[in-house]
Structures are given as C-alpha cells and as structure tokens.
Amino acid sequence: MVTRILALVVGVVAFVGCQGSDPEPTVNPTVDPGSAGSAVIARDATPGFGNQELDDAGALPPVDAGSVKPEEPEPPDAGKLIAELGAIAAWQTVIDRAQLLARRGQHGIAYGTLGPPIMMLGPVPEPTDAGVKALDAGLIASPYVWLVDDTEGNGTLGIRVALGKYTANEGQRVALGGAWHLDDDRRWFWKVDSLQALPPGPPSDLKDPPAAVPGHEIVRGNLPSGARTITVSRDNDAVYFQIVGPAPARDGDGWLVANELGDTPFALMTLPGERPTYGGQDMRAADERWLLKKGQTYWVRIGKIRKRAPEQPVVVHARTAPVRVN
Q1: Domain for residue 142, yes or no?
Q2: Tens digits of pLDDT across the chain (326 residues)
Q3: Which of 54, 60, 119, 160 could be bridged to 189 by S-S, CB 3.0 to 4.6 A?
Q4: Domain boundary among 163, 197, 231
Q5: Where among 162, 197, 232 does a domain terminate?
Q6: Cβ atoms 6, 17 nearer than 8 A
Q7: Could you list the residue range(s) of the whole structural domain that residue 305 is in?
C-alpha cells in the first residue's frame, strides 16, 4: 500500500515539473532531418523576421546605414528636351526666316542663351529757351534683348527678341516660341509667345573668349599669341590673312584668302553663320552679313583644314568672328 502511494506522489511531481518547463523547439519542416541543416530552428513566427537568414548566434546581421544610398535623379538631357520641343538654334531661324514669318501665320521655337539688352539712341531733348540744342540722351535700353546662338560663332551670332510678358535672367539658356516680325525701323525681331527654360549646354572647347556683344560689326584687336599665317596653319589654329578675291556671291560660297593681297588664293574661308538658305528665298538683312575688305589683315580661329585637288584652295571654316588686326 505504501509503495503505491509513493509511486502516485512521484508521478504527480513529474507532471507538475513538465508543465513549468520550456516547450521543445519545433524543427523547421523545410529542412531534411537527416541533413546538416536539421539543427536550424524555425523562427518564421517571430514578428519582423520573415525568412531572413540569421547569424550563428541566432540574430539578424547588422545593417550598415552608410551602404544604403538614395537614388539620385538623372540630370535632364538638354538635347532630348530640344528635340522634343522641335526647337532650332537661334541663328538657324535667320537662315530659315522665310518659313518663320508671323505675317504668314508661321511659327517656330528658337533656342540659345539670353544676352544683354540691345541698346539704342535715346530721344533728342528739346532745345533750351536760349535756342541752344541740348546734348542727346545717349544710349538707352531698347525693347529687345539678344538671344545668342550657343552652337556656333563663339557668341557673335544672335537675334533680337522681344520677350514681352516673359522674364528670364541674362545668361540663362531658353527655348523661345514665336515668329519673325518687322518693327517700324524695318528691323527683324523675334516676338516671343512662349518660354521654356533649358539645362546648360556643353562647354565650349575654344580657348578664345566669346564675343562681348553679338553682331556682324568688325572689331579691331591684336593678334593672339601663337597666331600663324594662313599658308602654314594647322587644324584649330588662330590664323591671319587678307581677302584676295571678290565678296561671296551667295552666303556659304566662301571668301578667297591668302597671306597678302596679290598672292595666289590659298583657302576658301566660310565665316560664322554663312550658310546657304535652302529654297533660295534668303531674307537676311544687311547687318546680318559680314563685310570684309581687300588689303586689310584679319584673324580668326579655324576648325579643320579640308584639302581638295592640288590646284584648288583648301576649305576652312572660321569658328570665331573676324577681327581686324591693328
């Protein structure tokens, strides 16, 4: 009897001890019990852990905050945006003027860099009571600003634009919707009806500073360091020369040049913006063409020299405005 009571007490104590102990961990059913990974404990039920791999201590590996970098947005592609707008370079609108006239209901988009205001003579003051004429008011800002072509000419090619209600800062690259108009003085200007800011264009590879103000007026200056005569020039040189032939009959025909007047023509030179108008209807104004004279020395920066037949002058394109040498 005593023996049965002792056995019953031992069983009750064993049952209570089992209720207070930790439950046996569950083996991951996805692991083959006979494999080396059978000792891995499933923790899928632990909040926030999911199915991430644990280290040997059963904890998640630390995350390096510096290794996670936010994605940076790609810089806008100026060329793609210009193509999507259907815009053309500022000086090309001069060459294509016959297809961009407001009076015909035509329209286009010109792009370039905004330059300074275009200056003009101020009004002449009325004479004084003594009958002595007062000095004029000098130069004042006109209603126009320059849109400088930043694809050729090193700042010397530009068009007059009337921004109207639109505003932008000097030096900003923009695409300006509009068309060509004539003002009361018979000068062409681009009347703006839309403005789109553009990303900056690629930097120029020219070492020469850009023109201070656009225009076809010939400026004076000294020869730059390293300038060569045209007959010994190389690609991308600064060269000096004289005109030895007549002015081009058409834009794009080129100027015959040599070292000095009287020499055999060495090169046929095209100046910035001198391209033919396709279709034959050229509407360029007199101040939109270069006027060079024989017997005067000029210098320009050229591009590549293109050779032709031995008896023919080489072909060169000027990348900067002609400067009359002092």
Answers
A1: yes
A2: 444 443 443 443 344 444 444 444 444 444 444 444 433 333 444 444 344 454 555 555 665 555 666 676 777 889 999 999 999 999 999 999 999 999 999 999 999 999 999 998 887 777 666 666 656 668 888 999 999 999 999 999 999 999 999 999 999 999 999 999 999 999 999 999 999 999 999 999 998 999 999 999 999 999 999 999 999 999 999 999 999 999 999 999 999 999 999 999 999 999 999 999 988 789 999 999 999 999 999 999 999 999 999 899 999 999 999 999 99
A3: 160
A4: 197
A5: 197
A6: no
A7: 216-326
